[in-house]
Design brief:
single chain; alpha/beta; six-stranded parallel beta sheet; 6 strands; 15% strand; globular
């Protein structure tokens, strides 16, 4: 029996976030350049996106490029940006076919012009799709996002638009780039690393974490199903006791 058939579709996480890690090490294992790993990772993106949509997951957020990734060798960064343009150009038709809407979070203005344009074109073309929302975190930093939200609320307070005492969790959440998107119930990270790496620091406060030793290019549909099954076998208490949840 495959893992998919064991999944309770009534208890799916509405939002899954994934830190796609291990492309470079996967390529090294195969005696190839790191970019080879990134190219093969695109197939995992396609499979996991389609699998999530088929199951009924409403939001899938992928950590595609962090602000810290600019510190990588220029050759790799340039290749990644070129790959993003190529992939967005090719995959928009797939998104349309599957009724998937594309969104992006991060400091997008800092992306190269061609990458930024390809991203905006994809977002515009898929904006009316409703089956699932695919969110790409590009030039993204959780600390940056929180600081930007704090600055905006401070400006609004200073200008008299709002009373500082009225700022609550909901208002702060709505000042983030993920406004209108529910917090992820499940975070997946591949490659054996067990840290957040500055990803969705506010939004992951009560998420379940799933870590796997698989490198991202090896993480396919079956891997996603296993992660969801693991999630469904957990008890989400949100600070309460097991008895309170049952009752």
């Amino acid at each position: 029996m495959d893992s998919k058939s064991l999944i309770n579709t009534e208890r799916l996480p509405k939002h899954i976030a994934i830190i796609m890690d291990g492309n470079g090490r996967w390529a090294k294992q195969h005696g190839k350049h790191r970019v080879f790993g990134h190219r093969n990772g695109v197939q995992s993106v396609r499979e996991c996106t389609e699998a999530a949509a088929e199951l009924g997951v409403e939001y899938l957020t992928l950590y595609a490029f962090s602000t810290e990734n600019w510190n990588r060798p220029a050759l790799e960064v340039n290749a990644l940006m070129t790959l993003l343009v190529e992939t967005l150009g090719k995959e928009v038709d797939t998104l349309m076919k599957n009724n998937i809407r594309l969104k992006a979070i991060g400091d997008l203005s800092k992306l190269p012009k061609r990458t930024h344009k390809a991203l905006l074109d994809g977002i515009e073309k898929t904006k009316d799709n409703q089956r699932m929302t695919l969110v790409l975190a590009l030039n993204y930093s959780g600390k940056w996002e929180i600081l930007e939200a704090a600055k905006q609320l401070a400006k609004d307070s200073k200008s008299g638009k709002l009373n500082p005492d009225d700022i609550d969790e909901e208002m702060f959440s709505n000042a983030l780039t993920t406004a209108g998107i529910p917090d992820p119930e499940l975070l997946i990270r591949t490659s054996g690393e067990t840290r957040l790496s500055n990803f969705l620091l506010w939004q992951l406060a009560y998420s379940e974490f799933y870590f796997t030793a698989e490198f991202w290019p090896d993480f396919k549909k079956e891997s996603l199903y296993k992660a969801i099954l693991d999630y469904q076998n957990r008890e989400r208490r949100f600070g309460k006791t097991s008895e309170q949840i049952i009752n």
